[in-house]
Amino acid sequence: MVRREVNPPADGWSLTLPAGLWADLSRHLFTDGAGHGAVILAEHVRGPRGPRLLGRRLILAGDGVDYVEGTTGHHALRAEFVRDAAVLARDEGLAYLAVHNHYGTTTVGFSIVDLSSHERGYPALRQITRQLVGAVVFTSQAAAGDLWLPDGTRTTLAEVVVPDNNVLRLQPRPAEPAARDPEYDRQSRLFGDRGQETLRQLHVAVVGLGGVGSVVVELLARLGVGHLVLIDADHAARTNLPRLIAARHDDVGRPKTSLAARNARQANPDVMLTLIQQEVQTPRARDALAYCDWIFLAADTDAARHWVNEAVHQHLIPATQIGVKIPVDADGTLGQIHAVTRPITPDGGCLWCNELIDATELAIDMLPDAERERARYVAGVPAPSVIALNTLAAAEAVNHFMLAVTNLHHDDTGQAAVLHRPRSRDRDLQNPRRNPLCPTCSRCRQRT
């Protein structure tokens, strides 16, 4: 495998494309070495480093039909194709982005002819749509954008992000080399200096700070992740101590967010922390998830699964669900232990499609505390939980994350879950199921 240098996140406007949309667009643009065109309609939201555009619709321009020889340039989108796409953008309140490809690999920019075309057409198009309009030019490894904002100003696109097995960050040119931090010298020899800088710039949430989540926080902090968002409403109990990393006996009764924050700061004094001692379904926690680059789901409630799954598909943020199950029958018979690490990506791994959210339990989880207890009728029996098994799942999840964000996975695509069965020493991959009618994740798959 030829090593590809990763681009650290760039400040400014970004465009995020679900993996399936990017795959369809790549096949259209890069299959035969010729020029091709398309339109992307995108939702405008806020993000951790600037405004984000989220690709919602891809409209491919037919060669010779919708993408034709232009009067001043090599090719152009036909006027009727532009009109229909612009009306759709206006009606759905989405940004309109015309797309074409250039020759090249890691560097790309608009030609003088391209920019002249934008100046002739986009002021009028902006008036028609009353939305952001603009253009993006791609090579297979780079992207540049020219954005015309509704307030009359104009700006550039900093990067296009594709969250998949590797998180691609396509920028107009390769990022400048990053300075090496001596403290991270050994792991920079794997990630590269740009990879280490990528980790420093990331915002990562951990939902659930118990036996699995506390290990995840420790690993992320020691990797040098720059900003951690720690979400958990619980306090440490005496029965938690054997599984909470670095917990002390005088920590009983303290918020789990405080214990996780203490460990993170001991591992990395420069880490920025956002502590949310609330359930993930609260507005503050949900808002915080929307500003992250990655989410670790280490809580086992149906509400946590639902709201993290929702953040993935609404905001196009990749996540990883982590869990360990130790089944014991009523007569004490031990079943097959399994530890699972499941990627949840925009366009793949939806927890509703994979029947991992129980609608009835979700409804109970969303009740106020007192009503929730009455709704359950019988108090639950605590499930077995062991730190070594939790650590197995946490390490698998963090390894997948660090290789994805530094572009070190062998394949750019792939959303299979990893299932460990420690009793039989098996390790399997499970591809996610997909329901084409799923109202949650189908919003990532709109192609025309």
From TrEMBL:
<dbReference type="GO" id="GO:0016779">
    <property type="term" value="F:nucleotidyltransferase activity"/>
</dbReference>
<dbReference type="InterPro" id="IPR035985">
    <property type="entry name" value="Ubiquitin-activating_enz"/>
</dbReference>
<dbReference type="Pfam" id="PF00899">
    <property type="entry name" value="ThiF"/>
</dbReference>
<dbReference type="GO" id="GO:0061503">
    <property type="term" value="F:tRNA threonylcarbamoyladenosine dehydratase"/>
</dbReference>
<dbReference type="GO" id="GO:0061504">
    <property type="term" value="P:cyclic threonylcarbamoyladenosine biosynthetic process"/>
</dbReference>
<feature type="domain" description="THIF-type NAD/FAD binding fold">
    <location>
        <begin position="184"/>
        <end position="438"/>
    </location>
</feature>
<dbReference type="InterPro" id="IPR045886">
    <property type="entry name" value="ThiF/MoeB/HesA"/>
</dbReference>
<dbReference type="GO" id="GO:0008641">
    <property type="term" value="F:ubiquitin-like modifier activating enzyme activity"/>
</dbReference>
<protein>
    <submittedName>
        <fullName>Molybdopterin/thiamine biosynthesis adenylyltransferase</fullName>
    </submittedName>
</protein>
<keyword id="KW-0548">Nucleotidyltransferase</keyword>
<dbReference type="InterPro" id="IPR000594">
    <property type="entry name" value="ThiF_NAD_FAD-bd"/>
</dbReference>
<keyword id="KW-0808">Transferase</keyword>
